[in-house]
Amino acid sequence: MGLGLDDLYRDIILDHYRHPRNKGRLDSPDIANQGENPLCGDEIEIGLKIADGRVVDVGFSGHGCSISQASASMMTEAIKGKPIAEVEELVGEFQGMMRGEDAPDTEEFDDLAALQGVRKYPVRVKCALLSWTTLAETLKLYEQAAKRGN
Amino acid sequence: MFDVQAVRADFPVLRRLVNGKPLVYFDNAATSQKPRQVIEALVDYYERYNSNIHRGVHTLAEESTEAYEQARRLAARFINAPAASEAVFVRNTTEAINLVARSWGAKALRPGDEIVLTEAEHHSNLIPWQQIAAEKSAVLKFIPILDDGTLDMDAAARLIGPRTRLVAVAHMGNVLGAINPVVELGKLAHGVGALILVDGAQSVPHMPVDVQALGCDFLAFSSHKMLGPTGIGVLYGRQELLDAMDPYQTGGSMIRSVRLDRATWAEVPAKFEAGTPNIADTVAFGAAIEYLQGLGMANVLRHEQEMATYALDALRSVRGLRVFGPTDPTMRGGVISFWLDDIHPHDIGTVVDREGVAIRAGHHCAQPLMRRLGVPATARASFYVYNTPEEVDVLVGALHKTKELFSGVRVG
């Protein structure tokens, strides 16, 4: 590319941006929630279908830059089919990575590790985190609703 | 006309490289760069006569008081205010508008009274009115913008009516760069007995502004967008309005006489300048005003409209690029917002930064306007006295590189 941007715009990131996975609203999610980055106006909505304590389906919609969209797309791939407890652990690991910790040496981070390059662009870290923070809030809402339901 | 190369030589920051490339600074609507005359005024103040003002009889106190009040005279003259006392120093445009909302609005507004704004206002000329309107059960009305970014003046004539107490409008938009017909709006406001507040944050730095010719009751602007330091701004208000308003903050410097249980207020402008003010930055702001006066504000406007004309043409050569706002360069200042293909403005901002070009990407503190334009954000290039057409060419080259990098992107 010759711009010195290779660390930020890794091919895998641009691929997820061009062909986002799990993009679109779920028909009847068990829980849905919105998040926004007030600094740039980016908005995201995450919907989850949950069965037997597992995220069985996930969809995201909204708009944002390549980093926020790619991060959301990768996130949906990483969490689909996982038990809620594991998803929450993954959120913590991802947030840790964006704060500067090493990426865990796990299968889930094969693609996600590409987002480490964003750390060199501090103003863009929030873009990468938006979908994850929103996911964490969505799970919290789900757990609160489940508690009330019991 | 001034010599742009000579102007550039006065701005030390323009000598620096960004990512190995000469800095092209196109984020002037956010804040301008500072000439060495302003930087030297700051250093000179701290090295020679730093002292608190309006108290003390020693030499340094006299010198700092004189420099502070000289800056006030310069600011007042710059906007042709009839009296220096009508220029109140505040932190910035935002604080100036909050001051009016609080000190005028809290006293003057009755339930059902109307404040007329536009759809394109900066949040700083929206939220203070939302707050005071909610408190006083007043009603906000919004003049719509037409598709070319200009105001719908037919709607304005209908919206400004017998319940209107205030019209508050930007002189020049910070997103679209449109110069609004403030004189006409002032006549509409005064015709129904209302006041007009002009947000001059984008106009005062870039064009001649004369409060008497505009017929405005209040004018707010910031030093940092007009070559001066951050942390200082001006609220101009007509003397009798300022006299009738209550203080904004209370404490030292703003009093006449104090008993344990009560106090009386000092005259305007001291009434609105509680506490030790931002003396050093105010003095340096004076140096910025003198610098602009040296260039001549008519020349500044001409330079920027020439820049805008050149940039509008050059940007049109980029396929997929859509410019917002008036297409007629005489209707606008040097602020150009655009959208390129489906590439998010953040990505544009990051890629052009690698070429040394600083532009703004985001909602520009105008979320309602973004919704009106149907985009989540825009990229914005804004010009000032030190910018050149060659720098526009650098931006255009960087935009072509951005397109190349993101080719094939379709945002769903």
Tell me what the structure shows.
Chain A has one domain (11-149): Sufe protein. Chain: A. Helix content of chain A is 47%, strand content 18%. Chain A is built from 5 helices and 3 strands. Chain A has helices at 11-18, 66-79, 84-99, 109-112, 122-149, and strands spanning 31-37, 42-51, 54-63. Chain A has a 3-stranded antiparallel β-sheet with strand order 1-2-3, covered by helices on one side. In chain A, helix 1 packs across helix 2, helix 2 (66-79) runs parallel beside helix 5 (122-149) and helix 3 (84-99) packs antiparallel against helix 5 (122-149). The longest helix of chain A is centred in the C-terminal third of the chain and has 28 residues, at 122-149. The radius of gyration of chain A is 15 Å and the shape is globular. Chain A starts with 10 loop residues before the first helix and ends with a helix. The mean pLDDT of chain A is 92. Chain B is of the alpha/beta class. Chain B has 2 domains: 4-30 and 296-405, Aspartate Aminotransferase, domain 1 (Alpha-Beta Complex); 39-293, 3-Layer(aba) Sandwich (Aspartate Aminotransferase, domain 2), CATH 3.40.640.10. Helices cover 40% and strands 17% of the residues of chain B. Chain B is built from 14 helices and 17 strands. Chain B has helices at residues 4-9, 36-49, 59-78, 93-108, 127-136, 153-159, 182-191, 211-214, 239-244, 279-295, 297-316, 345-353, 367-373, 389-405, and strands at residues 17-18, 21-22, 24-25, 87-90, 114-118, 139-143, 164-170, 195-199, 218-222, 233-237, 255-258, 263-265, 321-323, 335-340, 357-358, 360-362, 378-382. In chain B, helix 8 links the parallel strand 8 (195-199) and strand 9 (218-222). The mean pLDDT of chain B is 95. Classes of the chains: A alpha+beta (150), B alpha/beta (412).
